[in-house]
């Protein structure tokens, strides 16, 4: 009897490792959904912060799952479903309540196109991520959905930031931004994934300093930092594409002689 009591556990250690990342994911989607409510109430600055927090959580849950060996198929599918809400539906509603509603049916059509592109991008990611690990894991096809969700908010963030020096025609800028980001989401343009960063030991201290400095700026000059980060990210896309094709050419003779690129929607 005593032996049975000692072996009895309410939750197994393996089950706990699986549940913890999923809790992070669900918290993220709740925050993403709350951003819609804030935007509906006209509290757009809070809705921006909610999407940023959801993006940070989205970046952490997968890493936590891999760190504690708690990755699961359910968690993978749950992460994609919540991404559609947090970085597809929520940003679309925020921008619709802010400016796109002034365009009538065209504004709503632009929102629908963006959400569909987010869904297609996530569906393609789920298929391609099942392939064997290779140097391609350092790159995404198109921009990831969290980046897209933040980028479409850049005009709104700019309007609240201290960088708002030039007066922009937001009725023109916002639809253009939505179209550009939608195309980048479903495109096959290689972008850095930052999943595997190889840093020499002597450079680790500088990397840590840079991370601390960036988050310090994000805390002090939040909106300005988001705008500048978004612009820098868009400017880095051509460099990431060049790096991808250079690396592909370098490894072609070793790995890609008998490999054909699969055309996945």
Task: Give me a quick take on this structure.
The protein contains 10 helices and 2 strands; from the N terminus they run αααααβαααβαα. With 265 residues, it is mainly α. About 2% of the residues have low confidence.
Name its key features.
single chain, 265 residues, mainly alpha, Four Helix Bundle (Hemerythrin (Met), subunit A), two-stranded antiparallel ribbon, 72% helix
Model description:
The protein has 265 residues and is mainly α. It has one domain: Up-down Bundle (Four Helix Bundle (Hemerythrin (Met), subunit A)), CATH 1.20.120.1760. 72% of the residues lie in helices and 2% in strands. The chain has a two-stranded antiparallel ribbon. Helix 3 runs antiparallel to helix 4 and helix 3 packs antiparallel against helix 6. The chain starts with a helix and ends in a 10-residue tail after the last helix. About 2% of the residues have low confidence.
End-to-end C-alpha gap = 58 Å
Taking the sheet with the most strands, its summary is: 2 strands, antiparallel
The value of Rg in angstroms is: 21 Å
- The whole-number mean of residue pLDDT values reads 82
Strand line-up in the sheet with most strands: 1-2
Q: Helical element count?
A: 10
Judged by helices, strands and strand pairing, the structural class is mainly alpha
Count of separate structural domains: 1
């Amino acid at each position: 009897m005593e032996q049975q009591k000692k072996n009895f556990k309410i939750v197994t250690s393996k089950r706990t490792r699986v549940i913890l990342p999923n809790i992070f994911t669900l918290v993220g989607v709740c925050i993403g959904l709350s951003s819609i409510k804030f935007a509906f109430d006209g509290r757009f600055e809070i809705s921006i912060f909610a999407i940023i927090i959801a993006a940070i959580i989205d970046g952490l849950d997968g890493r936590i799952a891999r760190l504690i060996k708690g990755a699961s198929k359910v968690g993978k599918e749950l992460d994609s479903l919540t991404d559609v809400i947090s970085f597809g539906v929520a940003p679309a509603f925020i921008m619709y309540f802010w400016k796109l509603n002034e365009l009538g049916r065209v504004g709503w059509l632009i929102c629908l196109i963006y959400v569909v592109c987010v869904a297609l991008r996530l569906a393609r990611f789920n298929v391609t991520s099942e392939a064997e690990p290779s140097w391609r894991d350092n790159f995404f096809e198109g921009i990831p959905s969290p980046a897209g969700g933040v980028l479409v908010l850049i005009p709104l963030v700019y309007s609240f930031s201290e960088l708002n020096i030039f007066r922009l025609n937001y009725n023109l800028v916002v639809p253009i931004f939505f179209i550009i980001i939608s195309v980048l989401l479903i495109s096959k343009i290689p972008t850095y994934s930052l999943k595997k960063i190889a840093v020499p030991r002597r450079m680790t201290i500088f990397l840590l300093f840079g991370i601390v400095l960036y988050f310090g700026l994000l805390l002090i000059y939040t909106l300005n930092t988001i705008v500048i980060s978004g612009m820098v990210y868009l400017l880095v896309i051509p460099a990431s594409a060049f790096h991808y094709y250079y690396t592909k050419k370098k490894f072609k003779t070793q790995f890609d002689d008998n490999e054909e690129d699969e055309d996945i929607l």
